[in-house]
Amino acid sequence: MQVLSVTIGLPIPIPILAQAVRAGFPSPADDFIEDEIDLHRLLIANRPATFLVRVAGDSMLLAKLHDGDIAVVDRSLKPRNGDVVVVDVDGERSFKVWRRQGPRVTLHFANPRFPEFQLSPDATIEVWGVVSGSVNPRRRSE
């Protein structure tokens, strides 16, 4: 797992279309640019506690984190049921889905091809951060 620091310089506004684009038939108004957004503001709520982490492997496919994606991880967030977290289990860092039922916490893969993740009763668990967003490049460089 590769952890990248977040460097924020001047805002880089990017045009955003006025209407959401349908995943079906297009609308004639789809080409109207309404405003601009800054991806730093969109993805990062707490700069000092935010890191970018490159995803390796396919254990989080159903959580929409793919091999090579960049996860936005906020270390100031407390995990909620169903959150994807970066967790250290006995010193090994990985992505897992956090589930809590009362006092019991379980960790899960987000890929049905993986076996159930078993925690030993004496496992040392430390939540390193909560995934608050991601960047998913669709076209990989060759």
What are the defining features of this structure?
mainly beta, Umud Fragment, subunit A, 7-stranded antiparallel β-sheet, globular, Peptidase S24/S26A/S26B, conserved region, DNA repair, autocatalytic cleavage, Peptidase_S24_S26A/B/C
Q: What is Rg?
A: 18 Å
CATH 4th-level superfamily of the domain at 46-135: Umud Fragment, subunit A
- Please tally the helical runs, counting DSSP H or I stretches of 4 or more residues: 1
- CATH fold group of the domain at 46-135: Umud Fragment, subunit A
Structure classification: mainly beta
Question: CA-to-CA gap between the ends?
Answer: 22 Å
What characteristic shape results from the CA principal axes? Answer: globular
Largest sheet: 7 strands, antiparallel
Low-confidence stretches: none
> What is the H/E order?
EEEHEEEEEE
Percentage of residues in strands? 35-45%
- Main sheet: strand order: 1-4-5-9-6-7-8
Give the class-level CATH name of the domain at 46-135. Answer: Mainly Beta
Instruction: Estimate percent helicity.
Output: under 10%
CATH architecture of the domain at 46-135: Ribbon
Number of strands: 9
Overall average residue pLDDT: 82
GO molecular function: DNA binding; hydrolase activity
Organism: Methylorubrum extorquens DSM 13060
Domain Peptidase S24/S26A/S26B/S26C: 15-131
Keywords: Autocatalytic cleavage, DNA damage, DNA repair, Hydrolase, SOS response
